[in-house]
Design brief:
- The complex is a heterotrimer of chains A (667), B (311) and C (99).
- Helices cover 69% and strands 3% of the residues of chain A.
- Chain A is built from 24 helices and two strands.
- Chain A has a two-stranded antiparallel sheet with strand order 1-2.
- The radius of gyration of chain A is 30 Å and the shape is globular.
- Chain B is mainly α and 311 residues long.
- Among the domains of chain B are: 109 residues, NADH-ubiquinone/plastoquinone oxidoreductase chain 6, subunit NuoJ (Four Helix Bundle (Hemerythrin (Met), subunit A)), CATH 1.20.120.1200; 33 residues.
- Chain B has twelve helices and two strands; from the N terminus they run H-H-H-H-H-H-H-H-E-E-H-H-H-H.
- In chain B, a hairpin with a 5-residue loop joins strand 1 and strand 2.
- Chain B is elongated, with a radius of gyration of 30 Å.
- Chain B starts with a helix and ends with a helix.
- Chain C is mainly α and 99 residues long.
- Chain C has one domain: Helix Hairpins, CATH 1.10.287.
- Helix content of chain C is 78%, strand content 0%.
- Chain C has three helices and no strands.
- Classes of the chains: A mainly alpha (667), B mainly alpha (311), C mainly alpha (99).
- The interface between B and C is large, with 92 and 72 residues.
C-alpha cells in the first residue's frame, strides 16, 4: 500500500515531463494524456483512501521513504511521504477537483494553440501540490511549496502576450517570495531548535521548546501562509492572478494552492497551540482578511475578481478557524474542502459564462443569462447557495461551525471574532447575490465585443493604474480568451460543451451534499481527529441561536443586494459610488499602500544606504588606506637600504632581548 | 711561553696571581687591538691589529687549559684565516683606506648607544649569573687535552663533526663557484685583437712605459708625453682602477725644465718653453695620491676617471 | 683573580666587534669585526669550559672555528666577486634594496 504513495506524485510529474519535453508531436493527444494521468492519480488516491478506511483510526497513517535526499552529518532530509487523514483529504480534493478541471480545460482551451503546454503546467502543478501535502518533513514541503509557486507563476502568465498577464504573474511570484522567506526562516529555526524538520519529531516535541522560539516559528509560518493564501498583508497578488485562464483560477487560485497556507497552519498545529501569541496573530490575520476580501468582492464588476475577493474572504474564514486551535482545525479543513467544491464550481461557471459571452468579464454587461445557459445557471446557483450558507448545503455546515467555534473562543475575543464572522457571512450573502443577479437575472445589457485596440473603460480607476509598479491591469479583458471574436458583434450566449458542463455538474453535487455528508455523526471531524485533535467548543450562546443569527444576517445581506440590483436596473457603466466603493474597486488601495510604503520606502532606504556606503563605509576604507599609506610613507624612511642600518636595529633588538631576560630574572 | 706554562700549572686550581697579572696586561692589549681593528683607516692595519688580538686570545686559551684550541687559534686563525684576509686586502687594494666620516645620519650614535647598552646589559647579565662554581680542568685534562677532545669529537659529537666536514667542502666549492668566471666565448687570437685595435683606431702601438721621468723607479708614476703632460696610458690598468697613480712631482718637473734650459744654452738654441704640465698647478693633484677611493661612497675610481677625462 | 673576568673580557670584545660591524663601511673590515665577535664567543666558551670542568665548551669553540673558516672562505669569495663587479668593497654601495 505504501508503495502507491509515490505513484500519486509520479503520475502527474510524468505527464508534465512528457508534455513539456515532448514537442509538437503531442499537440493532438497532449490534453488527453494530461487528463488521463490526473485521473490515474485520482484513482490511486481512491484506492489508498479505501485502504485507509479499512484500517483502524490510529494506524491509518502511511509512510514511504524513497531515499535520503540530503544526508550531511546530523542534517538529514529524506525524500519521504506521509499519508495520514489530513493528507488524504487534500489528496482527494486535489486529484478530484484537479481531474475535473482537466476535463473542463479540454473544452475551455480548445482553441488555444498552446493547449499541450497548458496541460503540462497543470500536471506540474498537481505534482507539486501533491508533494506539498504528502511531504513528511518541512524541507520537502518547502520543495512542493516552491513548485506550486512556479506552476502558479507559469499559469497566471500563460497568456504572456498580454502585458497585464505577464505583470500579474511577476507580481504573484514576487509577493509569494516574501512569504517563502518566512517559510525558509521557519525551517531554519526548526532545525536549530529541534535538530530535524520531519513532522513527527518536530510536532511531538514542540511543547518542549521555549515559547519565544515557538512564537518566532509560528509567526514565520504565518508569513508563509499569508503569502501563499493571499492573506493580509500579502493579499495583493490574488486579484491580479485572475489574468490567468479561468480553469487555473478555479483550480489553483480557489480550490487548492491558495489553501496551502491553511494546510501549513493546521499541520503545524502543535507549534501554534504552544505559542498563543502566534495563534492570536493567525486569528487576527484571518479576521482582517475575511472582511477585506468580502468588501473588495462587493465592489468588483469583473466577475472573476469578485470571486477572487470571495476566495480571499473564505480563506480568511479558514485561517481564522485554524487559529482557534483544536476547536477549529477540523472545521477549517472541512470548510476548505466544501469551499474547494463550490468555489471551483463558481469559477467554472464564470468561465462558462465568459466562454458564451465573447470572453466578456464585466458583469454589468451580462444580465438575463439564465435562459440561455441553463446548466451553467443551475450549477452556478447551487454553488451560490452553498457559499452563502443556505441551510442544508455544504457551506452552511462548514461555515456555521466556524462561526460557532469563533464564539466558543471565549471572552471578548470570542465575541469580536463571532461578530466578524457573522458580519462576513452577511457580506458574503450580499456580494454573491449581487453576482448572481447581475449575471443571470434582470434585462440583457449585452454589448458588442470590445475593440481590442481601444483602451478599456471598464473601470474609471484603471486610468491611472499605469503608474503603479505592480498594479494589476484592472479591467482589460479585451484580449482575453483563447479565441478572438470579431469586434462589434453582439455576443451570442450559448451553453458550453459537455466537457465543460459535466465537471460543473459534478462540482455542484459536491457543493450540495459534501457538507451534509461530512456532518453525519460528525464523520469528518472524527476522521481528522487523530491528526488535528478536536475539542468541542462551548459558545456562550446555544448553537441554535447562532444558526438563527447567521440566517438572519444572510437574509439581510441577500435582501439588500436584491433591493439594490434586483429591483432597479443595473447601469452599464459603473456609477461613481461612495468613497468606500471606489476604494474597494481599487482593492482597498492595497497597491497604493504597497507602492507608497514598500516601493517608495525601499527606494529611500536604498538611497540612504548608498549614501552611507559612499560616505561612511568608503570613508572608513579610504581613510584606513590613506592613513596606512601615510604611515608607511614615514616608516619607509627607516628602510634606507643600508645593511648597516638594519644591523643597528638588529643589535638594538638583541640588547632589548637581554634587558627583557634580565628583567624577567629579576622579577 | 712562560705565561702559558704558568697557565698549565694553575689550570687545575684557582687562578694564581701570575695569571691575574697576565690577564690584566694582555687583556688591556687585546682590547686595544680590538679597538684599533675597528678604528684604523686602512684595512691592512685593521687586519694586523686583529691578528695581534687573536694571538693574545690564543694565550688566554692556553691559560684556560685549552691547549689544543690555543695552538689551533695561532695556526689556523692567525696563520691561515688572517692571511686569507690580508690576501684579499691586497687584492682589493692595500693602500685603500676608509675615511671614518659617517654618511648615514645618526648611524654612529645609534651604534655607540646600542653597543654601550648591549655591553652594559651583557656585563650585568654575567654579574647576575650564579657562576660561583669553579671546577677547573684538572680532571678533564688528566688524560691529555687533545685526547680528551678527540674522545668527545669522535663519540658524542661525531655527527656534528662529519657535518662540519661537509660544510667545509661546500664552502670550498661555493668559493670556487662564486669567484670562478666562466669563459663563454673563444679566447681571441692576437691577430683578432690587433685587427680590433686597428678597427677602433685607438692606440695602435704598444702602450708606453710608466715612470719615464720619475726619480724613482715606480710603476705608479705616469710617464710624460713629449709636451710634458703625464699620460695615464702608461700606468697599469689595475692601479688606475684603484686610483693609485702618483703624480709626477713638481720638483721633477722643475729639474727637467732646468736641464732642458741648460742644454738649450749649451747648444745655443732658442729657448724652448714647454707648456705647463696640466696637473702641476692643480691643488688637488697633490692630495690625490693620499686620497684613494672609498672615502666617499660616490668617489669611486670610475668617477675619478670620468672627472679627469672631462678636464 | 676570578676567572669570570674572562667572561667580562669576552663581552667587551664582542661589543667592540659588534660596534665595528655597525660603524665600518669596508666589507673586509666588517668581516674582520665579525671574526672578532666569534673569537670573543670562543673565549667565553673556553672560560666556561674551565669553570665547569668539562671539555664540551672547547668542542663548541672548535666547531665555531671550523664554521668560521668556512664562512671566511665564502664571505671573502663574495667580497671578491662584489669588488670585481662593482669596483668597491663598501657595504653601503649595496643599498639596492631601497626603491
Amino acid at each position: 500500500m505504501e508503495n502507491l504513495i509515490a505513484l500519486l506524485v509520479a503520475a502527474p510529474l510524468l505527464g508534465a515531463a512528457v508534455l513539456l519535453c515532448g514537442g509538437r508531436r503531442l499537440d493532438a493527444a497532449g490534453h488527453w494524456l494530461g487528463t488521463l494521468l490526473a485521473a490515474a492519480s485520482f484513482v490511486v488516491a481512491a484506492v489508498l483512501f479505501f485502504g485507509m478506511l479499512g484500517r483502524g483510526a490510529e494506524d491509518r497513517a502511511l509512510h514511504q521513504t524513497l531515499y535520503t535526499w540530503v544526508p550531511v552529518e546530523s542534517f538529514r532530509a529524506d525524500l519521504a511521504f506521509q499519508l495520514d487523514q489530513l493528507s488524504m483529504t487534500f489528496v482527494l480534493l486535489i486529484t478530484g477537483v484537479g481531474t475535473l478541471i482537466h476535463v473542463y480545460s479540454i473544452g475551455y482551451m480548445e482553441h488555444d494553440e498552446r493547449r499541450r503546454r497548458f496541460f503540462g503546467y497543470l500536471n506540474l502543478f498537481l505534482a507539486a501540490m501533491l508533494l506539498l501535502v504528502l511531504a513528511d518533513n518541512y524541507l520537502l514541503l518547502y520543495f512542493g511549496w516552491e513548485g506550486v509557486g512556479l506552476a502558479s507563476y507559469l499559469l497566471i502568465g500563460f497568456w504572456q502576450h498580454k502585458p497585464s498577464a505577464a505583470t500579474a504573474a511577476k507580481k504573484a511570484f514576487l509577493v509569494n517570495r516574501v512569504g517563502d522567506i518566512g517559510l525558509s526562516i521557519a525551517i531554519m529555526l526548526m532545525f536549530t531548535t529541534f535538530g530535524t524538520f520531519a513532522f513527527g519529531p518536530v510536532l511531538a516535541t514542540a511543547d518542549k521548546a521555549s515559547e519565544g522560539t515557538l512564537t518566532a516559528i509560528g509567526l514565520m509560518l504565518l508569513l508563509a501562509a499569508c503569502g501563499k493564501s493571499a492573506q493580509v498583508p500579502l493579499q495583493s497578488w490574488l486579484g491580479d492572478a485572475m489574468e490567468g485562464p479561468t480553469p487555473v483560477s478555479a483550480l489553483i487560485h480557489a480550490a487548492t494552492m491558495v489553501t496551502a497556507g491553511v494546510y501549513l497552519i493546521t499541520r503545524s498545529g502543535a507549534i501554534f497551540d504552544a505559542a498563543p501569541t502566534a495563534q492570536t496573530a493567525v486569528v487576527t490575520v484571518g479576521a482582517v482578511t475575511l472582511l477585506f476580501g468580502a468588501i473588495v468582492g462587493c465592489a468588483k464588476d469583473d466577475i472573476k475578481k469578485a470571486l477572487a475577493g470571495s476566495t480571499m474572504s473564505q480563506i480568511g474564514y479558514m485561517v481564522l478557524a485554524a487559529g482557534l486551535g483544536p476547536i477549529g482545525y477540523a472545521f477549517a479543513i472541512m470548510h476548505l474542502v466544501t469551499h474547494g467544491f463550490f468555489k471551483a464550481g463558481l469559477f467554472l461557471g464564470a468561465g462558462s459564462v465568459m466562454h458564451g459571452m465573447n470572453d466578456e468579464v464585466d458583469m454589468r454587461k451580462y444580465g438575463g443569462l439564465r435562459a440561455y445557459m441553463p446548466v451553467t445557471f443551475v450549477t452556478f446557483g447551487l454553488g451560490y447557495l452553498a457559499i452563502i450558507g443556505f441551510p442544508g448545503l455544504s457551506g452552511f455546515w462548514s461555515k456555521d461551525k466556524i462561526i460557532e467555534a469563533a464564539f466558543a473562543k471565549g471572552g471578548t475575543e470570542g465575541w469580536i471574532l463571532g461578530a466578524v464572522t457573522l458580519l462576513g457571512a452577511g457580506i458574503t450573502a450580499y456580494y454573491m447575490t449581487r453576482v448572481m443577479i447581475m449575471t443571470f437575472f434582470g434585462e440583457k445589457r449585452w454589448q458588442p465585443a470590445p475593440d481590442p485596440h481601444r483602451a478599456p473603460d471598464v473601470e474609471p480607476a484603471a486610468a491611472d493604474d499605469g503608474r503603479h509598479l505592480a498594479a494589476g491591469p484592472v479591467g482589460s479583458p479585451a484580449a482575453e480568451g483563447p479565441a478572438g471574436h470579431p469586434a462589434g458583434e453582439l455576443p451570442d450566449p450559448h451553453e458550453s460543451p459537455r466537457s465543460m458542463t459535466v465537471p460543473m455538474i459534478v462540482l455542484a453535487f459536491g457543493s450540495v451534499f459534501a457538507g451534509g455528508l461530512f456532518s453525519i455523526n460528525s464523520a469528518f471531524v472524527h476522521w481528522l481527529e487523530p491528526v488535528t485533535r478536536f475539542e468541542h467548543g462551548h459558545p456562550p450562546v446555544s448553537a441554535a441561536v447562532i444558526t438563527t443569527a447567521t440566517l438572519v444576517v444572510l437574509l439581510a445581506g441577500a435582501g439588500l443586494a436584491y433591493a439594490q440590483y434586483g429591483r432597479r436596473p443595473v447601469p452599464v457603466t459603473a456609477p461613481r459610488g461612495s468613497l468606500l466603493t471606489r476604494a474597494a474597486r481599487r482593492d482597498l488601495l492595497q497597491d497604493d499602500f504597497n507602492h507608497v510604503v514598500l516601493v517608495r520606502g525601499g527606494e529611500h532606504l536604498t538611497r540612504s544606504l548608498v549614501y552611507v556606503d559612499h560616505t561612511l563605509v568608503d570613508g572608513v576604507v579610504n581613510g584606513t588606506a590613506a592613513s596606512v599609506g601615510g604611515l608607511s610613507g614615514r616608516l619607509r624612511k627607516l628602510q634606507n637600504g643600508y645593511a648597516r642600518s638594519y644591523a643597528v636595529s638588529m643589535f638594538g633588538g638583541t640588547a632589548v632581548l637581554i634587558a627583557a631576560t634580565l628583567l624577567m630574572r629579576a622579577v | 711561553m712562560s705565561a702559558a706554562l704558568h697557565g698549565v700549572t694553575t689550570a687545575a686550581s684557582l687562578t694564581s696571581t701570575g695569571e691575574a697579572v697576565q690577564f690584566w696586561i694582555l687583556g688591556t692589549v687585546a682590547v686595544a687591538g680590538a679597538l684599533c681593528t675597528i678604528l684604523m683607516r686602512k684595512a691592512v692595519h685593521s687586519a694586523l691589529c686583529l691578528a695581534g688580538t687573536m694571538i693574545i686570545l690564543a694565550v688566554f686559551y692556553l691559560a684556560n687549559g685549552a691547549y689544543f684550541l690555543g695552538i689551533v687559534q695561532i695556526v689556523v686563525y692567525t696563520g691561515a684565516i688572517m692571511m686569507l684576509f690580508l690576501f684579499v686586502v691586497m687584492l682589493v687594494g692595500v693602500t685603500a683606506a676608509d675615511s671614518l666620516k659617517e654618511t648615514i645620519k645618526g648611524q654612529r650614535w645609534w651604534a655607540v648607544a646600542c653597543g654601550l647598552g648591549f655591553g652594559v646589559l651583557l656585563a650585568a647579565g654575567i654579574g647576575h649569573a650564579s657562576l660561583d662554581t669553579f671546577t677547573g680542568l684538572g680532571a678533564a685534562n688528566s688524560g691529555g687535552n687533545v685526547e680528551g677532545l678527540a674522545a668527545l669529537i669522535f663519540t658524542r659529537y661525531v655527527f656534528a663533526f662529519e657535518i662540519t666536514g661537509a660544510l667545509l667542502i661546500t664552502a670550498a666549492v661555493g668559493a670556487m663557484v662564486l669567484t670562478h668566471r666562466e669563459r663563454t666565448e673563444r679566447a681571441r687570437t692576437q691577430r683578432e685583437l690587433a685587427e680590433q685595435r686597428v678597427r677602433e683606431g685607438r692606440q695602435l702601438p704598444p702602450l708606453p712605459a710608466p715612470g719615464v721621468y720619475a726619480r724613482h723607479n715606480a710603476v705608479d708614476v705616469a710617464g710624460l708625453l713629449p709636451d710634458g703632460t703625464p699620460s695615464e696610458l702608461t700606468v697599469s690598468r689595475t692601479l688606475r682602477a684603484r686610483g693609485q697613480i702618483r703624480d709626477v712631482s713638481p720638483e721633477a718637473m722643475a729639474d727637467l725644465r732646468a736641464l732642458e734650459r741648460r742644454s738649450e744654452e749649451r747648444l745655443g738654441r732658442r729657448p724652448y718653453e714647454p707648456p705647463r704640465p696640466r696637473d702641476s698647478g692643480d691643488p688637488r693633484a697633490g692630495d690625490r695620491a693620499d686620497d684613494p677611493p672609498g672615502d666617499r661612497p660616490g668617489d669611486r675610481p670610475a668617477n675619478r676617471r670620468e672627472e679627469e677625462n672631462a678636464q | 683573580m676570578n676567572p669570570v673576568n674572562y667572561l667580562y673580557l669576552a663581552a667587551l670584545l664582542f661589543t667592540i666587534g659588534a660596534a665595528g660591524v655597525l660603524i665600518r663601511r669596508n666589507a673586509i673590515v666588517v668581516f674582520m669585526c665579525v671574526e672578532l665577535m666569534l673569537n670573543a664567543c670562543n673565549l667565553a666558551f673556553v672560560a666556561f669550559s674551565r669553570l665547569h670542568g668539562n671539555l664540551d665548551g672547547q668542542i663548541i669553540a672548535f666547531f665555531t672555528m671550523v664554521v668560521a673558516a668556512a664562512e671566511v672562505v665564502v664571505g671573502l669569495a663574495i667580497i671578491v666577486s662584489l669588488f670585481r663587479s662593482r669596483h668597491s668593497a663598501s657595504v653601503d654601495d649595496a643599498s639596492l634594496m631601497k626603491l
